[in-house]
Structures are given as C-alpha cells and as structure tokens.
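fyi for ur records
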Amino acid sequence: MANRHRGEVTAHLNGKPHTLVLTLGALADLEDAFDGEDILAVAEHLQSGRLSARDCVKIISAGLRGGGHPVTEAEVADMTVEGGAAGYVRIVADLIAATFSPLAAAQDTTPDTKTTPPEK
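which gave:
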C-alpha cells in the first residue's frame, strides 16, 4: 500500500497495482528529461497543467523506477490503464500532488511583505 507521506501513489498499469514515487534519483532523471531544468523549474513545469503524452510517459517511468520497478519509457508507453488517456493524466496528477504538495504548502506560508499605509 502506498504511503502518501513519503510521496507514494498506487497506479494500476496493465491491470496490476504498482507503487510509484518520485525519489530524489527519479527527480534527477526528470531534470535531465526536461532539458536540465533545476528541481524547482521541474516542479513548476509539472504543476503547469500543460503536459504532453511524452511528459506523462517520462513522469510515470520515473515514478515506477523510484518505486522499485525497473522499466523503460518504451515499456511504459505500451502499458494500459483504466480510463485511457484520462487515466494516465490522473496518475501523473496524483504523483505530482503527492510529491510537491508539501512544497507548495511551504511556499504559501511565506509572510506577505507588502505594507499598507496607516489610515488617517
């Protein structure tokens, strides 16, 4: 069973449950896959909502490898998931949320530095 506190999600690929997690190594693979962007740029790219099918293959592949499943991107591209294309998008969205939600929450707690003039 996946542990969301460790960024793990469960996805049913080819009819079988798999644990996916974007470990530091998996994130490094994604940095390379997305033209050497740093980890924050990768997070922003993933959370932009504008992902291609190729992006989904890269993300799911990295998550599977991080979860201990030695797969290639070609193998992932041939996998089936319930719900078709929407099913792949749900997996990616769930994995991104499990990985980066605490990061987003931490960024949201930054104090507002704007000052308002005192009322007269």
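Residues 103-118 have pLDDT under 50 and may be disordered. thats all i got for now
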